[in-house]
């Protein structure tokens, strides 16, 4: 009887699982083609100094415009790129492209590039970063790599070595999505980040949730004490910005200033130095 149940259950699940796996495979194949055909693009979103309103730099964000399906979010295709290892090729291209673009901006502006834990573990990251810097001629201190807490959670010693080696090149290192991982504060002591990016989920309800308020206050205070730059992600309105200003947060990034935009628009904004189009 138990056997029968088992078989029934198996039959019930299998077709659905099969469809899911199939959909993923299709997406994977198409992503591979998109990578080869250079159908991937980068959008750039400005990061603004809260005290002065000046643009400090832009974050490069991957965009995939699929021929039939339209825009596919990085939240959807990056996990697939990571599982298949395709992220190594894509990540190398992102580094090259972002550095080449940033080289056209005024010399005080930097570019932020997201680095996947898979790239990080692949042992080619250091060489990829060096290659992108030398082929673009971008000074290393104008490149900021954005990593997540996950990198410090696994294989800590080897990863700390990689981080130190990257820093040795002169690039900046930012911790992205801060507050979403585990025992975040511990990691801040292990490696001295140049910047901490407060996750947008905390900014989203900073005016309505006392928990989020407490987190934002704590992180801003910590950054001030440790002399690390703090950046708030996902700033969408004036009130959020005002709260951040009062907490001494250094920079802000979000729809309130600008949505991620094509390279040409970013270049124009970078040259004019004005972040607010309002
Ligand atoms: P992230 O690095 O934390 O990037 C910030 C995300 O917040 C971006 O989503 C950006 O478009 C979005 N955002 C900016 N301002 C606002 C706002 O005011 N409100 C809201 N609700 N969202 C805002 P996006 O572009 O969809 O990227 C999602 C994630 O995909 C990124 O999160 C990053 O983890 C990953 N990603 C993007 N590009 C790359 C890449 O080149 N390489 C790797 N490894 N990951 C990437
Ligand atoms: Mg990021
Ligand atoms: Mg983030
Ligand atoms: Mg994120």
Descriptive labels:
single chain; 278 residues; alpha/beta; 9 strands; disordered N terminus; binds ligand C2E; binds magnesium ion
Layout of helices and strands:
Blueprint: H1 2-36, E1 40-49, E2 55-66, E3 70-72, H2 74-84, H3 87-102, E4 110-114, H4 117-121, H5 125-136, E5 143-147, H6 149-153, H7 156-169, E6 172-178, H8 184-190, E7 195-198, H9 200-204, H10 210-226, E8 229-232, H11 238-246, E9 251-252, H12 263-272
Parallel strand pairs: 2-4, 4-5, 5-6, 6-7, 7-8, 8-9
Antiparallel strand pairs: 1-2, 1-9, 2-3
Helix pairs in contact: 1-2, 3-5
Protein name: PAS domain S-box-containing protein/diguanylate cyclase (GGDEF)-like protein
Domain EAL: 24-274
For the record, give the distance between the C-alpha atoms at the N and C termini, rounded to a whole number.
69 Å
Per DSSP E runs of 2 or more residues, the count of β-strands stands at 9
H/E element sequence: HEEEHHEHHEHHEHEHHEHEH
Strand composition percent: 15-25%
As a percent range, the share of helical residues equals 40-55%
| Cα shape | globular
Which structural class matches the secondary elements? alpha/beta
Question: Strand sequence of the main sheet, in spatial order?
Answer: 1-2-4-5-6-7-8-9
Average predicted local confidence, pLDDT: 89
Q: How many helical stretches?
A: 12
Bound molecules: ligand C2E, magnesium ion
- Provide the gyration radius in Å: 21 Å
Question: Low-confidence runs (pLDDT<50, min 5 residues)?
Answer: 1-11
Main sheet summary: 8 strands, mixed, barrel
Protein name: PAS domain S-box-containing protein/diguanylate cyclase (GGDEF)-like protein
Organism: Marinobacterium zhoushanense
């Amino acid at each position: 009887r138990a056997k029968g149940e088992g078989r029934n259950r198996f039959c019930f699940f299998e077709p659905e699982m099969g469809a899911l796996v199939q959909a993923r495979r299709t997406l994977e194949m198409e992503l591979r083609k998109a990578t080869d055909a250079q159908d991937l693009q980068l959008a750039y979103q400005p990061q603004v100094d809260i005290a002065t309103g000046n643009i400090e730099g832009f974050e490069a964000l991957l965009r995939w415009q699929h021929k039939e399906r339209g825009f596919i979010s990085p939240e959807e295709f990056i996990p697939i790129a990571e599982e298949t290892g395709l992220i190594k090729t894509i990540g190398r291209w992102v580094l090259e492209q972002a550095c080449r673009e940033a080289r056209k901006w005024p010399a005080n502006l930097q570019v932020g590039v997201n680095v996947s834990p898979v790239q990080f573990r692949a042992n080619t990251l250091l060489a990829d970063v060096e290659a992108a810097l030398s082929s673009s001629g971008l000074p290393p201190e104008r490149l900021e790599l954005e990593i997540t807490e996950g990198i410090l959670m696994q294989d800590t010693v080897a990863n700390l070595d990689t981080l130190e080696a990257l820093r040795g090149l002169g690039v900046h290192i930012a911790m992205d999505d801060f507050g979403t991982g585990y025992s975040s504060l511990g990691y801040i002591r292990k490696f001295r980040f140049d910047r901490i990016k407060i996750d947008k989920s905390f900014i989203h309800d900073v005016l309505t949730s006392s928990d989020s308020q407490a987190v934002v206050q704590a992180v801003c205070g910590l950054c001030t004490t440790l002399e690390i730059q703090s950046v708030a992600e996902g700033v969408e309105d004036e009130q959020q910005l005002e709260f951040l200003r009062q907490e001494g947060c250094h920079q802000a990034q979000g729809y309130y200033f600008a949505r991620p935009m094509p390279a040409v628009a970013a270049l124009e904004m970078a040259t004019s130095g004005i972040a607010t189009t309002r």
